[in-house]
C-alpha cells in the first residue's frame, strides 16, 4: 500500500483518515500526539532535526496541510521542511493553499491565470509557499481552497452570539467547500497524471453571499435572524480577522476542477452541506 504523509494532521486530515484509510497507508505528522491515522508521528516541522531529515524513508506522496507561522510574509516552516526532507523520495506534493492569494477582486470571477495580489500577511505567506513549491523541482499540485466548512466547523459561536450580519443587498460573495468534498479531491489528485505541476481552484461551484450562508444556518437551527447592518457598522464591531474577510471578495472559476474531477462535489447546495454538518 502506498504511503501518504499528511503534514499538518488537523481537521482536513481527520476527514481523510475517516474516509480513505483503505486506499493509502496514512501517516499523520503534527506537533501533538494523535491516533487518527494508520501511523502517527509527533514532530515539530518548523525546526531542523534528524527526525525531520529522516521523516520520508521511501517513495511517498505528501499532502501538505500545515499552516505557516503567524507573522511575516514568507512561509518559514515550509522552507525548513523542504530543505530538510529528502525531496527525491517525494512522488507527488499536494499543497493546500488559499484563494486569498488573489486578493480583493471586488466580486469578479477569477481563474487560475488571474493575477495574484494577496492583501493580508496570512495570504502573502501562502503565496510565498506556492512559489517555494513551484521552484522546488517536485511534482506538485497546488489547490487554492476557499472557506472550508463541515461538522464542527460551522460558525455556530457567532450564530449563538447573534453577531449582526451585513445587509444581504450589499453583502459580497464568498466561496466555500465541504471538507468531505475537499478530501475527495485531495485523494483523487494523488495519482491523476493530468493534475500535476498545476495550480487548481477548488470550491463547491456555488458562490454565495456571506449573509445568505449565515441565514441558511439560522434556518437550519430554526433561530430568528440577527440584526442586519451596513459595512461601516460592521467595521466598528467585527474583530480583525472577520474584517479581513469582508474587505475582499472574489468568485472562483472552477472549470478546470470540473474537467479534472467531474464528480467530486457532493454538496453543491450549501443547505445540504449544512444539514450534513448538523446531523
Describe this structure in words.
The chain is α/β, with parallel strands linked by helices and 279 residues long. The protein contains 11 helices and 15 strands. The protein has helices at residues 11-20, 50-53, 76-84, 121-134, 156-160, 179-189, 210-221, 231-237, 240-246, 255-260, 270-278, and strands at residues 3-7, 25-30, 39-42, 60-64, 90-98, 109-110, 140-145, 147-149, 165-166, 173-174, 176-178, 198-201, 208-209, 228-229, 251-252. Strands 3-2-1-4-5-7-12 form a 7-stranded parallel β-sheet, with helices on both faces. A two-stranded parallel sheet has the order 6-15. A two-stranded parallel sheet has the order 8-11. Helix 7 (210-221) packs across helix 11 (270-278). The chain is globular and about 55 Å long. The mean pLDDT is 97.
Identify the notable features of this structure and list them briefly.
two-stranded parallel ribbon, alpha/beta, 279 residues, 34% helix, 20% strand, 7-stranded parallel beta sheet, globular
Give the termini distance in whole angstroms.
33 Å
- Multimeric status of the protein: single chain
**Biggest sheet, in brief?**
7 strands, parallel
Numbering strands along the chain, what is their spatial order in the largest sheet? 3-2-1-4-5-7-12
By DSSP, the count of extended strands is 15
Order of helices and strands: EHEEHEHEEHEEHEEEHEEHEHHEHH
Spatial extent as radius of gyration = 19 Å
Q: How many helical elements?
A: 11
Question: Which percent bin holds the helix content?
Answer: 25-40%
The assigned structural class equals: alpha/beta
**Low-pLDDT residue spans:** none
How does the overall form come out from the CA principal axes?
globular
Beta percentage is 15-25%
Query: Roughly what is the average pLDDT, rounded to an integer?
Result: 97
Amino acid at each position: 500500500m502506498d504511503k501518504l504523509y499528511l503534514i499538518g494532521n488537523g481537521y482536513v486530515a481527520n476527514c481523510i483518515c475517516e474516509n480513505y484509510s483503505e486506499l493509502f497507508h496514512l501517516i499523520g505528522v503534527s506537533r501533538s500526539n494523535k491516533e487518527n491515522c494508520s501511523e502517527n508521528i509527533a514532530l515539530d516541522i518548523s525546526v531542523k532535526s534528524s527526525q525531520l531529515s529522516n521523516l520520508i524513508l521511501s517513495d511517498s506522496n505528501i499532502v501538505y496541510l500545515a499552516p505557516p507561522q503567524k507573522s511575516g510574509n514568507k512561509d518559514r516552516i515550509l522552507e525548513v521542511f523542504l530543505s530538510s526532507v529528502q525531496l527525491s523520495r517525494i512522488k507527488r506534493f499536494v499543497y493546500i493553499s488559499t484563494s486569498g492569494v488573489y486578493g480583493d477582486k471586488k466580486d469578479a470571477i477569477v481563474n487560475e491565470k488571474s493575477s495574484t495580489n494577496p492583501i493580508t500577511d496570512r495570504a502573502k505567506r501562502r503565496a510565498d509557499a506556492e512559489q517555494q513549491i513551484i521552484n522546488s523541482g517536485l511534482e506538485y499540485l497546488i489547490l487554492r481552497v476557499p472557506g472550508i466548512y463541515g461538522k464542527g466547523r460551522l460558525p455556530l459561536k457567532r450564530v449563538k452570539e447573534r453577531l449582526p450580519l451585513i445587509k444581504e443587498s450589499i453583502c459580497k460573495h464568498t466561496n466555500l467547500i465541504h471538507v468531505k468534498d475537499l478530501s475527495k479531491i485531495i485523494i483523487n489528485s494523488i495519482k491523476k497524471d493530468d493534475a500535476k505541476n498545476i495550480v487548481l481552484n477548488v470550491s463547491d461551484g456555488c458562490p454565495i453571499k456571506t449573509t445568505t450562508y449565515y441565514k441558511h444556518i439560522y434556518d437550519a437551527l430554526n433561530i430568528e435572524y440577527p440584526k442586519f447592518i451596513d459595512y461601516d457598522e460592521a467595521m466598528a464591531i467585527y474583530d480583525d480577522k472577520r474584517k479581513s474577510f469582508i474587505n475582499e471578495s472574489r468568485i472562483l472559476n472552477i472549470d478546470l476542477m470540473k474537467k479534472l474531477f467531474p464528480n467530486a462535489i457532493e454538496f453543491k447546495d450549501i443547505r445540504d452541506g449544512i444539514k450534513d454538518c448538523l446531523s
